[in-house]
């Protein structure tokens, strides 16, 4: 009887463990549409942003489909009031033609939407209490294009502190919906 019980438990473990490991290693994806709903498209590009305590910020001009500088993509550190240590990084996209919008990566400009996870995809916060887990693949549709953000790695110093000393972020600007596989029938 005990042998049968142990065998059943072992088989369950052998069967379910790979599923559990796969589920844990596959990052979640969150898709959201920006409050900006236009037709503008961009020159497609992919790049990595390597942030550190020495290279704290990053800025890149993004061209529209006509080749003109249209947007400014930036990543800046967030430091709690009066502190110089980085606890997270924040991503912003600003339209050079409409500068009164500080960040067009947000889903809503309404104050009551501030705590909605879909309105916080621009915050790269590795805290266990963050509304959006750090490894989540973020897809944000802005106008006629998509911005894809994926944190590839990050490091705390010291290791058990909330202070970041580096983060590697993969960024993609594309005019095609990244949720649809390239070879999938349309």
Secondary structure elements and pairings:
Blueprint: H1 2-25, E1 29-33, E2 45-52, E3 58-63, E4 69-78, E5 88-95, E6 123-124, E7 137-142, E8 145-156, E9 164-174
Parallel strand pairs: 1-7
Antiparallel strand pairs: 2-9, 3-4, 4-5, 5-6, 7-8, 8-9
Question: What does this entry look like structurally?
Answer:
- This protein is mainly beta and 186 residues long.
- The chain has one domain.
- It is built from one helix and nine strands; from the N terminus they run αβββββββββ.
- Strands 1-7-8-9-2 form a five-stranded mixed beta sheet, with no helix packed on it. A four-stranded antiparallel beta sheet has the order 3-4-5-6, with no helix packed on it.
Provide the β-strand percentage band.
35-45%
Query: Mind describing the biggest β-sheet?
Result: 5 strands, mixed
Whole-number total of structural domains: 1
Unreliable parts: 5-24
Approximately how much helix is present in the residues?
10-25%
Q: Walk across the major sheet and give the strand order.
A: 1-7-8-9-2
Helical run tally: 1
Estimated structural class: mainly beta
Q: Judging from the principal axes of the Cα atoms, what is the shape?
A: globular
SSE order, one letter for each helix or strand: HEEEEEEEEE
Tell me how many strands there are.
Answer: 9
Measured distance between first and last alpha carbons: 55 Å
Average pLDDT score: 85
Rg estimate, integer Å: 20 Å
